[in-house]
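Expect chain and fold; see below:
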Amino acid sequence: MNVLKSCKKAKSVKRVVLTSSCSSIRYRYDVQQIDPLNESHWSDTEYCKQYNLWYAYAKTVAEKEAWSVANESGINLVVVNPSYVVGPLLAPQPTSTIQKILEYVNGSVEEYPNMAVGFVHIEDVVAAHILAMEKKEAAGRLICSSTVAHWSDVIQMLKSKYPSYPIVDK
């Protein structure tokens, strides 16, 4: 929030693009009744607390606070909400997203979630941020997602590609 407050003081800043997450959208008690979820939806913080979804909780609270600061100070805020980001890594360590997939591949977890998830390539996320900054008409929250797949389908794809790995079965 300090960055947003500093942007308000700097008269030269025209727009702020914030990276949030689809995790600030999808975790809610009524998620099965809403199809599809869109930018107007928010994760329920009580739901996140009940199920120990602390990443989603933090992303939801932080994004709501960013919107509050932006609205109070007149900052032109655009938020990019990427889904499960995949693609080449810059750092030598895997991201938390890739780490989760590695847990399924190396057998360090016993089961995968019974749910579908959206995936998006990192290059598409980068492009979304650039467009959010450069295009005048960009506004509000922007979901950045591509393919949606059930974890069971992802697991089957991984098993066919890496048959010698102890990939989780359930």
